Amino acid sequence: MTKLAYLECPTGIAGDMCLGAIVDLGVPVNYLTEQLNKLGIASEYQLRAESVHRGGQRATKVHVDLSNKHDHSSHHHGRHLPEIAQLIAKAELPARAEAWSLAIFQRLAVAEGAVHGVAPEKVHFHEVGAVDAIVDIVGTCLGLDWLGIEQLYCSPLPTGGGMVRAAHGQLPVPVPAVLQLWSMRGCPIYSNGIERELVTPTGAAIATTLATDFGASPAMTLQKVGLGAGSIDLPIPNILRLWLGETTAHSPSTETIAVLETQIDDLSPQAIAYVFEALFAVGAVDVFTQPIAMKKSRLGVLLTVICHLDKVSSCEAVIFGETTTLGIRRTSQQRTILEREIQTVETEYGAVRVKVAWMAKDGTKAIANVQPEYEDCVQLAKNHHLPWREMHRLAMQSWYNKKE
Length: 404
Description:
Elements: E1 3-8, H1 15-24, H2 29-36, E2 45-54, E3 57-66, H3 71-77, H4 81-90, H5 95-116, H6 131-146, E4 151-154, E5 157-158, E6 163-166, E7 169-172, H7 176-185, E8 189-190, H8 201-210, E9 211-214, E10 221-229, E11 239-246, E12 253-264, H9 269-281, E13 286-293, E14 299-308, H10 312-322, E15 329-337, E16 339-347, E17 350-361, E18 364-372, H11 374-383, H12 388-403
Parallel strand pairs: 1-4, 4-9, 5-8
Antiparallel strand pairs: 1-11, 2-3, 6-7, 10-11, 12-14, 12-15, 13-14, 16-17, 17-18
Helix pairs in contact: 1-6, 2-6, 4-5, 5-6, 5-7, 5-8, 7-8, 9-10, 11-12
Protein name: Putative nickel insertion protein
Keywords: Lyase, Nickel
Family: Belongs to the LarC family.
């Protein structure tokens, strides 16, 4: 079973809220401090947690108290990416915490670089490079590793609004770095009507780097929820909720996929057949057509393509390039998929790959579907002058004999 976590962010996400949620889930503050001090910043801060109330609900607030000696110098001088990366690499942190921390700072540097028009390694982080932000990011990664999280998911994020004071003066909310991080990841966002800074660059970098997907919570057996408090009171409880759970044994998993549709009435069926091949070549999961009647009773086809979100641009490029359509509709849907694997069986005419799928039944792993690969059966049927149906039957028979 896979250990899952889900970031539910009704009032956004910030680094200190992430720390609060993981401490609320049981990660010891002493452990975080001990590991963070390997970065060589022990004299610059103190980490403490307290129980607070936000909108009448209890949550954990984590404070990163900067020492007077370093309070102003850390913020004023900031740090560049190579210096931060060197601190993390030399600290001998747990492997996953190190890799996640480096990835978050790299993504943040790319976003800040795009905003300011400089190379990522030249970005002067200001607040983000200060000690409190390093503690927030590295501490969050240490906590997720300590909890044993294997996959992290995140809800859509609220945009917030208004203005905020930053190192470069007054900035509109969302601040440019946050917008850049969202656009780099294709992050789903919405307005909850609260005109405050709800998502900080640190929080956005953590979510967009570590989240496997954004949207509704994944299917899981829920074990515990950690509550991380934000710094201010808002019209709704300013709390980040971190759900902790596991996948149900052998249960179907859910993923977000894109569905592309367009109708066509002025293209040869042979061209559409070629479009199928081209779409599968760039990674489409499935492609199909349906006959439809269009305006003025013209007969046409509805072309539907199912693909993963990272393949949308490639599939749309094929449709625009190979058909006469002028527009493509796009929706995102949840797809439930069974656990499956490819097995190979030997028949008297040669090897055939067989796709086997399972699902949970009475708490055990039960076979839901067995299908020999079409192309393998076609090839052997041609080679040995057999009907395809007979080759398919022999492959199924071989699989069941092997199972027994």
